[in-house]
Amino acid sequence: MDETPFDDDSLHEECGVFGIFGRADAAALVTLGLHSLQHRGQEAAGIVSFDGKQFHVERHAGLIGDTFTKQSVLERLPGEAAIGHTRYATTGGGGLRNVQPFFAELSAGGFAVAHNGNLTNALTVQRELQRRGSIFSSTSDTETILHLVATSGARHFNDKLIDALSRLEGAFSLVGMAPGRMIGVRDPLGIRPLVLGELEGSLILASETCALDIIGADFVRDIQPGEMVTITDSGIESAFPFQARRSRFCIFEYVYFARPDSNVEGRNVYEIRKRIGAELARESKEMGDIVVPVPDSGVPAAIGYAQEAKLPFELGIIRNHYVGRTFIQPTDSIRHMGVKLKHNANRSMIEGKRVILVDDSIVRGTTSQKIVQMVREAGAVEVHMRIASPPTRASCFYGVDTPEKSKLLASRMTIEEMRDYIQVDSLGFVSIDGLYRASFEPERNPHAPQFCDACFTGDYPTALTDFDGADNVRQLSMLGGNG
Amino acid sequence: MDETPFDDDSLHEECGVFGIFGRADAAALVTLGLHSLQHRGQEAAGIVSFDGKQFHVERHAGLIGDTFTKQSVLERLPGEAAIGHTRYATTGGGGLRNVQPFFAELSAGGFAVAHNGNLTNALTVQRELQRRGSIFSSTSDTETILHLVATSGARHFNDKLIDALSRLEGAFSLVGMAPGRMIGVRDPLGIRPLVLGELEGSLILASETCALDIIGADFVRDIQPGEMVTITDSGIESAFPFQARRSRFCIFEYVYFARPDSNVEGRNVYEIRKRIGAELARESKEMGDIVVPVPDSGVPAAIGYAQEAKLPFELGIIRNHYVGRTFIQPTDSIRHMGVKLKHNANRSMIEGKRVILVDDSIVRGTTSQKIVQMVREAGAVEVHMRIASPPTRASCFYGVDTPEKSKLLASRMTIEEMRDYIQVDSLGFVSIDGLYRASFEPERNPHAPQFCDACFTGDYPTALTDFDGADNVRQLSMLGGNG
Amino acid sequence: MDETPFDDDSLHEECGVFGIFGRADAAALVTLGLHSLQHRGQEAAGIVSFDGKQFHVERHAGLIGDTFTKQSVLERLPGEAAIGHTRYATTGGGGLRNVQPFFAELSAGGFAVAHNGNLTNALTVQRELQRRGSIFSSTSDTETILHLVATSGARHFNDKLIDALSRLEGAFSLVGMAPGRMIGVRDPLGIRPLVLGELEGSLILASETCALDIIGADFVRDIQPGEMVTITDSGIESAFPFQARRSRFCIFEYVYFARPDSNVEGRNVYEIRKRIGAELARESKEMGDIVVPVPDSGVPAAIGYAQEAKLPFELGIIRNHYVGRTFIQPTDSIRHMGVKLKHNANRSMIEGKRVILVDDSIVRGTTSQKIVQMVREAGAVEVHMRIASPPTRASCFYGVDTPEKSKLLASRMTIEEMRDYIQVDSLGFVSIDGLYRASFEPERNPHAPQFCDACFTGDYPTALTDFDGADNVRQLSMLGGNG
Amino acid sequence: MDETPFDDDSLHEECGVFGIFGRADAAALVTLGLHSLQHRGQEAAGIVSFDGKQFHVERHAGLIGDTFTKQSVLERLPGEAAIGHTRYATTGGGGLRNVQPFFAELSAGGFAVAHNGNLTNALTVQRELQRRGSIFSSTSDTETILHLVATSGARHFNDKLIDALSRLEGAFSLVGMAPGRMIGVRDPLGIRPLVLGELEGSLILASETCALDIIGADFVRDIQPGEMVTITDSGIESAFPFQARRSRFCIFEYVYFARPDSNVEGRNVYEIRKRIGAELARESKEMGDIVVPVPDSGVPAAIGYAQEAKLPFELGIIRNHYVGRTFIQPTDSIRHMGVKLKHNANRSMIEGKRVILVDDSIVRGTTSQKIVQMVREAGAVEVHMRIASPPTRASCFYGVDTPEKSKLLASRMTIEEMRDYIQVDSLGFVSIDGLYRASFEPERNPHAPQFCDACFTGDYPTALTDFDGADNVRQLSMLGGNG
Known about the structure:
Chains A, B, C, D: Pathway: Purine metabolism; IMP biosynthesis via de novo pathway; N(1)-(5-phospho-D-ribosyl)glycinamide from 5-phospho-alpha-D-ribose 1-diphosphate: step 1/2. Chains A, B, C, D: This is Amidophosphoribosyltransferase. The structure is a homotetramer. The first copy, chain A, is of the alpha+beta class. Chain A is built from 19 helices and 25 strands. Chain A has a seven-stranded antiparallel sheet. In chain A, strands 6-7-8-9-13-14 form a six-stranded antiparallel sheet. In chain A, strand 8 (170-178) and strand 9 form a beta hairpin. The interface between B and C is medium-sized, with 20 and 21 residues.
């Protein structure tokens, strides 16, 4: 059985995190926060609450709105502090073992942690810990954090956590909870987002500002790269316990992952996407009659493109939102028919037109091929494809589920070969400097890039200890990234 | 527990139908056809197949893509002919009893029927049939058709069906199946759509053309109002067995129900919606800075409005597509917070702007109130609401789930009162003639209206036998409409 | 996959019925009554209650104690009158369609009926009704009763029911419910049991007295063969509307179906079973060292045998009660190992002994073969099998799920051949007269047998209209017996 | 909601273990072995298999025959070695976390362990391990074994395990599995049973011999108290690595826990139970007319009693085997009726008789009270109760779920008070020496008791480190015993 092919051909953010401290109904508010972060992971979610004495843990596969909103589930999560996590994949047969937050009863007391990002030396550290006698109950890199805290020789809890994180490489935006405190940390590069909010005096940590909006909370500020905040009944304390480095926020959050209504690192995502569309229009020479987005992710860039190019913006492709992630194509013979489960071209809009098609990125290229064929069959006389990011040429090791490099279309073809492969009259990607300009930078600083753009440039900002040497792929399959 | 309030405040089409004759994998193709008609009903679906000897019936609650795509389900539906139905609601405790298609083993052989529409004298006829000894196993009006066929004195099968339908009032677009034949019928007014398609020689009946597109089938023609087609191995035969009447297609299919990529009665739905937006712009005197649709249904009209008014079209409101129909608001105190489960305003786009908000219709007005409040809180300096249909003043008895008349905002308020109620600076509805113009008619012919527009005008094109007299509401609750 | 082979080799009673009138918590009491009748059918159950205005229907697959005891289920069954039914099989793909009680809204008002027994002309009558326009929604013979009531020309409700039942052949012990009344009927031969009980003034109808015991109700009397009782707020009325016939109670109820603690037709089941064992001992010439029952059904007869023969009664075979009906033998190779899923011989008790093995009946003989082999492998030096019923030679058409005649071991072998087939040193069945004596009759009256013993004698007390002629088997598969 | 009260009033063995080495279909055979050990725990089960490279883990709540027999489950358990565990309770909200076998990937390789018994210093050791940095993922004492192995400084695997077990107190009959080996260990006192079997050359470890019988395997011998056996492709090796002590097998295994067809420590359980019944008869002075067992556990002792006393053995109480553990008494008013969900007296057998009632033990006394009342209401003129064990006065800390001491009837009443409480004419318990005699010992040696009989005598054979001091109850609730 083959699952929806369209879904296989996009990148998946693996996690969203949310925590609130000092508020009745804490778990219910986490539920809402995670619901608004559902685009960062749809497969499973977990919430841990603390009622002043005990921790309570719930983990469920499925959408928040279907699992965590039952009264009975919320009643099992009492307390005025709670943190939660939503994730993209429960890979392998592990069932709910890998669903976060992770929780352990340490000798220092209980500790729960929810992690967005991915560690690049977790496997190496895990092996050391196992040699010492630690037993791992999941295949998630996040569990490594718990064991490092548990075995740290430091005396105070925050010092144990700093000790643990100092030994790790990679991306981590964490929300942690110990008795009487909620802790937020961003890795020194600030690869993944993390914001601070407030609801009637209660402090909130969340991956994106849209999770503050849903409950009417105010945005306070971004947690800084390398910052650790500790929230207690006495308020919030900030520290910068790691060696300072220049920040490298993931630029793909702007291109695709973050919700358009979120403000990330001070910039509005929808606005940046429209600006990328405008850059694309300026960099493009071809003319068309209408600008058509590949819905839904291509819509803001297409609007920006159409406004800049002064061409009509039209919904020439309709998306069926009832396709879940589990739609199975019923039979073999039908699979070969190339059915349009998710998108359908609107012939009336397209017939006889020169169509400028706008999408956010090309991963394997299989979806683009199908979309273009569909648009041609609907009568387009020319199809020009414009992509709101540079060619995706390298894998991400910081919490995004990318196919291995060899499957990325741009890693094995020139742009002309790609144009031929997806059968368009012209193909254009926004330039890397255009992308930086749209993101309010003058251009990419090649000596000290302002963002992590490794998926476009292969320029990784951290060591990749677990992935060095010949056996990367095997190692990767042994220790799944988790968020 | 309160379910998503937003969903309560829109109208729901109750049914979509699809059938295919003479093709291996018939049931699998019906699955795909129903998937593309999922917008016409999300709660439950059924498929009946005929394998040359026996009929096979499957009914499931939930989305097609989650229920009917399992190999085991399709294996229980063998045969080269199959019909299916997707429906909005399984009201009451009846479980799957009311899920169509209905099937009965009659003395003349098996007969299955799937019905889009609603009969307005089903209860009256049902009582007569019960007096005669017929036993009803559902509360659906569609079962009445089966009993009338079963008790008809006519000799040939098609005559029995004509006999049965001649006794019924209301809207019916039917797909039926008896051994060796598939039958399509539209009521004399043609209130609900029904189209004929073809896939490599096999004939198809479907509610909308988008259900042909998904499997790459060709559109042949609309079934005519009052037409009955009989599809057998020898081909298709057409008859017009009912008294001829001037057609009255449901104009709300254009406004909201049909998918924008469908062509209905020869016109493209997306195009009509854009034209309604343009009419609205022409009829409107107020100025704004940006045109913002209430997603998703307001999008095409907003595009049309923006193009006509030469104003920027912007996604100022973002929709969370992960809200299923079952999202339960977790606690009482949270319910009163007015959380933004489904929509969020994009402050960066809206702040300081005069916003022209475009939506398809106003039913109870509760959603509009919340949306407007959200847009104001995001910093809009003026909010002007434009509605792509005339005020909805009367209930539908032809297959749409409308609240009772007294709950329709427009039935109890003037436009100025409504403007005040939803707290906008100005409120405009497209005129009835504007709507007809957008639908390619010169204007509404008051003596012989070209469409059924009863929800706007109260001008019902059929008798309403079951609903006459004082006890309408009670009767309605006893016999649910079904499709 | 092969389900428990042991279970395939016994006869299954198909139904138990229970109703109570005029008591708060009616449905909860029906739940308990059905629980105590669970031995008469384990696959599915249903309850219909009447709250003075409306009927409420619940049907569930599985054991009563797992399905109907949930608070939410009982809350959906309000009212002071309720009837219920438990059944052995939901044959075919019909799901819950065939689960009783059946209910219909007739022009005369609602009517629910629960039926223990089987009609032998239901198919013939069904065809007549279909010709007339009746639509059947199940494949159960019981639905025929509803349609005959619905189409009866009689004026009063009871007369409609008498009219309906007069047209039917076979076995029926019914509990019916219409507004304001509960009705109990037994067919003129009284083939299946039905008793009247009382709990603090409220009257009860039940298949067996053990269903009265569980709730502490008093036994009033057996409903008589051919009797119809009508229970209303004014009390109970009795009538004998059918032509009088000499009664023919099913003697297999004593042998196997009824619970040992029930009194049926004035006699205690456990006592009769012990008396059968004593008859067996008297009719038997072989000697043994110990008497070992095949648990659980052989236990009472083995006790009676041991007491009469003055031999020790020993549990030489232990039964595993955790075998549900669904235990699937895991793999092919294991299936051929002949694993002891349900019974295990207790070697310490059996080794070196001459074992007299007592069982209730032999159906296909496959279980007996396995049991005997197991006892021999445990070291028995001789195995003598004694069966507490005569050879089962003919199928039952009155509500028992018997294999077709050709699969009954006794229909194709002599006793000596059977002895050889199951590999015992001697094999004895109780004589038909011995069975009658144990049942407190002097002997079988061959001209007017006091019981229905058709499964032993082939002497059927009613016409078998549906089963005459060459195509019995096909017909049977088209219309399942139901209780 | 109140669950079946009868079930609350008996003792529950918490675990059964089974392993097989060197045989295709290993997991399927474990399934069957666990099925025959289902009486030792019904709530949940787990199986771990090893396919030569990888370990595979499955855990499910429910009966083996309902969960592990699905083809899909067995296909996820490939390999020629597998071990399994069935357990009584998944206490608390831990879900499947506490279901055994436990498995961990240690630096030395994978290790799985299934444990029958209970450790009496697990909590104390756990705290030490946590201080050292170990993270526990369950509340089961068995996980402590894994951590001690993981952190052991010994070099070879078996030495690590010996090192670990040497630090633990209490009862443990273990089956472990590491790559290439299966290990069986019994604690030095041999409190719980463990036997060695063989099936066509493949070796088996199981809690009881009935688990060998089900698959036709041969019994080889009991694993000795304090013995560790290591099974590899080269055969079996035996070692006695712990300090030698005189064995103290749990005598309650004979009284109630073990299956009657098992041979334990060289003695047949059914035979010992009959001998206890005979001792009871000899120690009893009262006369009766019939001997009636409380089914099912009282049956063997009642047979022994009746044979010794030369009185008729009769099934005067019938048990309903369809009562699952989850039967919920439907309503409050019904709960007060004292319904007979599980047992019913057979009035015909009991009326007018002097009844000698035989049961295995009295825990809280609530069941005995109800049974006696039921027997009296059925017309017994005298009721004499005889119990096949001495009064149960103390809690078990070795793997049996006993109520706390204060709830044990015999810990707070004299026998005369108990007689009065359960309202019998006489009450007798077998003497402790009678019980030893029935178990083939001349008498109890008070200086060196041959069995663990702590539940009758309070004489615990091990230290109870976790339970010393004032806060027993709290500690117990923090660390559940597991098997």
